[in-house]
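Re: beginner question about structure tokens

> Can someone show what the tokenized structure looks like for a real chain? I only ever see the sequence side.

Sure, here's an example I had lying around. Input first:
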Amino acid sequence: MAEGQLPRKIPLIFYRTAAGSEPVREWLKGLEEEERHAIGKDLLRAQWRWPVGMPLCRAMGSGLWELRTDLPTKRTARVLLCVYREHLVALHGFIKKTRATPEEDLAAARTRRKELER
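And the corresponding structure tokens:
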């Protein structure tokens, strides 16, 4: 950041389907409050520090980023993001159960990202 320049927060939006639902917001609402709070804190951290690297975010290729949150409940959450028109877009969220990011979760995020660009 240039000297004298104030930090700038990149806006975060939730991907919305053609029918108007927001899958990531709905997924978040189904989590326990302390888990939602932890993910929200990390999303905010990413907004203020973007572009941000490990351990908070990892590039997944194809313009996708994985926000990594270790939850207070000892579970691990991931939110897949992209940058679209100077906004961070939360495309897909899930609780990680395996070491590798499941292909179906990546595929869902890739599909949603392509829909944004149509």
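Each token stands for a local structural state, so reading them left to right follows the chain. The chain has three helices and five strands.
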